[in-house]
Amino acid sequence: MLDYTRLKFAASSDGAVPLFALDADNLSAWLEGQTPTVQNWVKAQGFNANVGSVCVVPDADGAIGIALAGLGDDTARARGRFAMASVASALPAGRYRIATDHAQDDLEEHALGWLLSQYTFETYRDQPPHAAQLVCPDTLDRSRIENIAAGEALTRDLINTPASDMGPDKLEAAARQLADAHGAAINVITGDALIEQNFPMIHTVGRASATPPRLIDITWGTTGPTLALVGKGVCFDTGGLNIKSGASMGLMKKDMGGAATVLGLAHMIMALGLNLQLRVLIPAVENAIDGSAFRPQDILTSRKGLTVEINNTDAEGRLVLADALALADETPPDLMICMATLTGAARVAVGPDISPFFTDDVPFADALRAGARTARDPVWEMPFHAPYEPLIEPGIADLDNAPKGGFAGTITAALFLRRFVSNTARFAHFDIYGWQPTAQPARPKGGVGMGARAILAALPKALNL
């Protein structure tokens, strides 16, 4: 059982130490309002309000009287986010309450960043607890922030778990746990039943694994607009017969990062009780190698009836997503969002910290950009560039799963997926990385959610909730 709701604010404000979160440019003004004793102490400690710096000022009895937290200057803030997360690990044990005034969005960033900084992956090794706890500011919705943090923790836990313990069957178990927690319905189609129920590409990609492929289908809510989330659940990707190098295979436990992210987002939506009808579809497979593995030059027929020539078995994610997208498109939702760790080209384009997305829906794109700024969850719009459509048309079949040449790989992958969404008017595709290569404030090295908080912030405007 996954304990993804473990990131919490302090249970009580009793004895909480006032914490003054200060920008470098307002430190002097703040000091002018303090006693000479405090001024001298802070200056003696060399505190300059750099990002992550702390200063603890004792009271008359030698206990912690107040604490100062550095938020840096304009340049530092422009180059990073969640500055308060750096402070959380630097402060001594105890309870703290933010005692300075901040804009509401900034205050929520501080509070969420503090919670996310407490995340550790403890399945295989005990980690020391974070001793400094934050009292949730009175003006914030404590439950909302804790539920957002829980969704992120779920995503991180799923990605961080190795494929030996997070194959398609275990991903199904995690989805069932989430559905049960929220009273959602869940249906799973497994193994040869995928062929019988017309999900041929999901079955083909996953059939070489010792753990059968499956399609996970969660539904929740009875009123409001309809939202479909489709997440790539490739629990490990060897590359198939076009086998990856050892270096490229090393991080492939994260190839189910799209599935992990939509499950984390689904938790946020259900826990917050948004007035919508949610459907989550996850094709869960392992792209393995044995005598039944699919081959280069095979031609597959998809659920939608489109034929696909296989020019690289390592371009398998778009195949399993295609069948799931086609299913969602048969009862068109008001908005469909696909999330996948799909292409290396996306990482070359925007690096590991930004979630590139594709959509023809201008209002959703505008709402998403605004939501990304509010949630401190950066996104960047990429084009469904129609002149590249011929690149995914091989001639011998309707579609090519891996166009030759290497140009515009993230765009051609997005165009491929869009071919399976012909009835749904509003569609967006996210090509995420799902991994934090080096530790950053609120984001330790390892699995990480990308785009989920931005989408959550965009949904009220995008769906008129």
From TrEMBL:
Keyword Manganese among UniProt keywords: yes
Superkingdom of this protein's organism: Bacteria
GO CC terms in record: cytoplasm
GO BP annotations listed: proteolysis
Stored InterPro entries: Leucine_aapep/pepB (IPR011356), Macro_dom-like (IPR043472), Peptidase_M17_C (IPR000819), Peptidase_M17_N_1 (IPR048816)
Entry annotated with the keyword Hydrolase: yes
Single Gene Ontology MF annotation: manganese ion binding
Name of the featured protein: Leucyl aminopeptidase
Family, similarity comment: Belongs to the peptidase M17 family.
